[in-house]
Write a structure and sequence with these properties.
It is built from 9 helices and no strands. The protein is mainly α and 148 residues long.
């Protein structure tokens, strides 16, 4: 149970970190989406983990404005943290959209009577749908449109 509490709090911290656009971009580039996805996969029946993970994804998948990734301060910080210079936030989202949409649908199915979880799940899917290139992935995600 302690690991579940830790995972929930980890996801909650990402919610807050992702409120600042440059920090959100860095978090995504460093694999924050994969960390949230892992928490969801490890604890599919824990409502607190799912709720907080979905809340983190709401912020992590929203499209960012271009924040001038090439400026010297960001480049130095990314180098120090070991972020590949040629990896973009969009690359990370493109790589994870299928997994994210699947995990969101699983959470919706597992907690179909939880208004709070369904609300957060719909917001994640909404934010993904803001990118027209993700529509195909959303439509092909098993049970996605049925859950909506």
């Amino acid at each position: 149970a302690n690991q579940e509490v830790l995972q929930a709090m980890s996801c909650w911290s990402m919610v807050n970190i992702a409120l600042i656009p440059k920090q959100k971009t860095m978090l995504v580039k460093l694999g924050g989406i994969s960390v949230v996805a892992n928490a969801m996969m490890q604890h599919p029946f824990n409502a607190e983990v799912q709720f907080r993970a979905l809340f983190a994804l709401i912020n992590l998948v929203i499209p960012s404005d271009n924040l001038a990734d090439e400026d010297a301060i960001n480049a130095a910080a990314e180098e120090e943290l070991g972020v590949a210079v040629d990896v973009t936030e969009r690359d990370m989202l493109d790589e994870n959209v299928g997994q994210i949409s699947n995990l969101v649908v699983v959470a919706m199915k597992n907690f179909c009577s939880s208004e709070a979880i369904l609300n957060r799940a719909c917001l994640v899917l909404h934010n993904l749908s803001l990118n027209e290139e993700y529509h195909r992935s959303l439509l092909w995600t098993p049970n996605c449109y049925q859950m909506l």
